[in-house]
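Session log. Operator J.P. requested a structure for one protein chain; no other inputs attached. Running the standard single-chain path with token output.
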Amino acid sequence: MLDRYGLAYQYIMSQNLDQKIDEPFAVLSNFNDMAISSFETGSLFSYSADKMGEEKFNLLLRNYIAENTDKQIYPEDFLDKLAKEESSTSYLKGFLKQKNRVNFRLKNFRVNNDSLNIKIVKNTDEAIPVKLETQTKSGDKTSYWIETEENERLKTVSLPSEDIYKITLNNDYIFPEANYRDNFLYTKGLFSNAKKSNLS
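Structure written below.
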């Protein structure tokens, strides 16, 4: 479902059909009442849960629901509690109030002795974390959460090279992005981008 949503999300953005998440439900289009209220919001919370730990996120959510049963709920209250528990989610409060065209991009990599220096570009000043995944030719995968700062559009990450064959950002469409095609690089072999491999 996530891969279908990723493709659908790219299409509605290219056609300028998307709407901000906190748009009143009554004015969402028939398509966006599912794409925005369910898929996009759900993927952002799932992304946050992955970053902070699902058990921790679920406990926070259960406690919030229990404390606010039969009360008027204000989304910003929950987002404040979430940000207090996991500071990397602080961007969500402003993020939900606008249409977004966020994009993470793997710019290039350099091999430096036994390390791989990877440059990540984002097109926003928001401090949004990004999940980086490395894969060896044998299929072994390792994931890292990379923190970014406000106004930091270029991030360099140094990792042990350890026979890394492929580098991917936000694999499996886990974050709603404007473009997923620039989220991966091959470090060697037939599929390696010639310009990128020259840097290695």
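Operator note: The first helix runs from residue 2 to 14.
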